[in-house]
Structure formats: C-alpha cells, structure tokens
Amino acid sequence: MTVAEVTGRKRIDWPRMLGRHGWTGGVWLLFAAIVIYYMTLIPSFGAFQITSLAKNSLPLVFLAVAQAIIVIAGGIDLGIGAVLVFGNAVAAQLMDGQPFATTILIAIGVVVLCAVLNGVVGWIIAVSRVPDIVVTLATLFIISGLALLVLPSPGGGTSEGFRAIFTGSATGSGTNFIPPLILLTLPVAVAAYFMRRTRTGLSIYATGSDPMAAFLSAVNTKRAKVVSYALGGAYAGLAGLAALAITGSGESRFVTAANFTLRAVAAIVLGGIALTGGVGSVVGATAAGLILFTLNPVLSAMGIDPNTAQVIQGTLIVVVMMVAGIIQLRRERAE
Fold first, then answer.
1. Which residues, 6+ apart, have CB-to-CB distance to 46 below 8 Å?
2. CB under 8 Å, gap of 24 or more: what pairs does 33-40 form?
3. Is residue 184 domain-resident?
C-alpha cells in the first residue's frame, strides 16, 4: 500500500501536469517578467499604470479568448475583429444619451446579438463544409460593412456608470484598478471553467483534436463547431463593449477590425494554442494578450519607435512558433 493510499490523497503527476500546463505557466512568467522590467523603466510605477494596463488590455484579451475557443474547436475566425467593431458600433449608437440601467440592458443585448451573428457563421461552416478561413474572410468584410452602416463615422457614446464598470472611473481615466481587474478575471474564469469542466466544452476540445474520432464517440461535432463560434462572438461583443467604455465613443473603421483580428491570432499562437485545434487553454491566450498589449508601452518607454516595435513583436511570435514546432516534433518522435 502506497503513502497516497494510506492518506487518501491523490498523488500529483508532476511530469504530466508540466506537460499539460507548462507552456501556459511559462507565458504567465514571461508576462510577469515584462511587467517587472516595465516597473524598472518607470520609477513612479503605481496604481495609475496598473489601471491603464488592466483596462486598456481588455478588448485584446477578450478577443484572444474568443479566437482561442474557436481555434480549439478546429476552426479559425478571420472575421472576429469585425464582430468586435460591429458590437462596438451598435452599442455606441444605442447607448448614446441613455441612463446607466438602459446601457446595461443594451450591453446584454449586444453580447447576445454578436453571439447569434457569429453562431450563424459557425452554422454555415458546419453545414456547407467550406473551410473556416474562406467563410470568415468573407464575414470580415460583410460584418465590417454592417458596422459602417450602423455607425458611418466615429461617434456615439455611453453612460458614465457603464464606463466605470470597465475602467474604474466615470471618465475612463483614473487609479482605481479593481473594476478592470475584476472584469479581466471573471469572464476568463468563466470561459476556462466552461471549456474544461462542462460536457460541451470537452466536446469542443474533442472536435478540434480529431473530428472523426469525436464523431464516432457520439460527439455532435456540428453542434460543437456552432457553439464555439457563438461563444467567440459573445466574447468579441464583450471586447467591443470594453473598447466603448475605454474610449467613450464608437469606432467602425475596417482597419480596426483587421488589426484586432491579426493581434488575436498572434495572441493564441503565443498562448500555446495549436492552430490544428484541440490543444491549449484560454488562460494561456489571456496571458499572451496581456503580453502583446504590454509590449507597446514597454518598448515606448525604452525609446523604440513604433515601426521597430512592430518588428520586435513579429519576431517574438515567429520565435515562439518555432519553439512550439520543435516541442511538438519531439513529442511526436517520443510517441
């Protein structure tokens, strides 16, 4: 009889745990190292900087979570940034001049609308079997066009209370970092729990890992695909609401949608999510989103111009992809 059996405690399989969560832990350690280095660059680092990092990273983090769920299911959404812009435009148009309670109801409606819209995209992919990259490339332009129809030029607005929920301040600027940290943590925790602890979440992993094996195991792969896109749409809508709360107005330009889409893809790659599907976690994507956002003020504090900063970020992503490829190759050889 082992010690674990006598004590009734389950023995932790550390090699297996490190194999499953090592990359995610490493990304969070990298984020911590970047923040510590940033603190050395700014001697007056304090509540204002923490608040700024927490609130301004919300749109990218939420969009990274959205893309992560879809990619884990074996897809990819090149139009996810357009869903963010669409949700942002609709919310800015409807919330302008409305009281706090009304803006909350509108926000819920926008999240549901974005979930339904992207769920339809997932349904089209599942039924037609046209590759995700083709359908979502088309939706990038279609949904961006819808956003421009709703809000032809930057404008609109929201209530001060709504802005305070995301930013900790009615004006969108301040030193109260508690609200943005809560808004950063709760949605990610909900997504992580759903993906790892629910039957639907596990079916999404199974579908992304091996669609045929999942189908033969009685997993409704079409349903899993549609749910993944719907969830991605909901989090993209939440990202659009966060952007509205931060800036206080709506923004519907196509370039915004395209840039957010590319950064979300970069975040999931850095976060350890395999583009082939079935591998990774939204927690790792969250850390990667924080890293990609934090790099901008860090490089700026170092005196590096924006163009060079883009090169550095791109190089980081390439290096990470190479390391991930080498690790995957070694695993396949070991098996």
1. 175
2. 34/291, 34/294, 34/295, 34/298, 35/294, 37/298, 38/294, 38/297, 38/298, 38/301
3. yes
The structure tokens 């709760």 sit at 186
Cα→Cα distances 111→49, 86, 90, 107, 333, Å: 29, 11, 10, 6, 44
Q: Per the domain annotation, does 206 fall within a domain?
A: yes
pTM of the model: 0.90
Phi, psi angles (nearest 5°) of residue 155:
170, -155
Residue 169 lies in a domain: yes
- How far is 117 from 286, CA to CA, in rounded Å? 24
Residues 7, 100: Cα–Cα separation, whole Å: 54
Tokens describing residue 233: 């749409």
Q: Is the dihedral of CA 25, 30, 33, 38 positive or negative?
A: negative
H helix and E strand count, the chain: 15, 0
CA 55/CA 168 separation, integer angstroms = 8
Structure tokens at 180: 């943005």
Looking at 223-237, 284-298, 304-318, which range is the least confident one?
A: 304-318
pLDDT at position 3 is 46
CATH of the domain at 147: 1.10.3470
Domain count, the chain: 1
* pLDDT tens-digit map of 37-69: 999 888 888 889 999 999 999 999 999 999 999
Element (H, E) at 316: helix 306-334
Range of the domain at 92: 51-300+307-334
d(CA 267, CA 131): 22
- Decide: helix, strand or coil at residue 250: strand
Cα–Cα distances (Å) from 30 to 10, 181, 287, 313, 334, in that order, read 30, 19, 9, 14, 27
pLDDT in tens, 170-202: 888 888 999 999 999 999 999 999 999 999 999
- Quick check: 248 and 1 in contact, CB under 8 A? no
